[in-house]
Design goal:
Length: about 70
């Protein structure tokens, strides 16, 4: 994960990092998706004009984030 943070000049909230650190590996994707969905909902509620997602290998995770957001549109 550190290489992604350096590459994209990103930061991860401490609470998210702690949740991931404490989780079993098979639960990390679900944690990430929940955080991404929550952040997306907050942004859409703040009337941002749009969201952009980067897909690195498969769209499955992004689809799980975006599908519930369609109800907000």
């Amino acid at each position: 994960m550190d290489i992604l943070l350096l590459t994209f000049h990103a930061e991860i909230p401490e609470a998210l990092a702690a949740e991931i650190e404490a989780a079993k590996p098979e639960h990390v994707a679900e944690i990430d998706q929940n955080w991404a969905r929550q952040q997306s909902e907050e942004l859409l509620s703040a009337d941002v004009p749009g969201l952009h997602f980067y897909i690195m290998s498969t769209a499955d995770h992004v689809c799980r984030v975006v599908e519930p957001l369609r109800k907000m549109a």
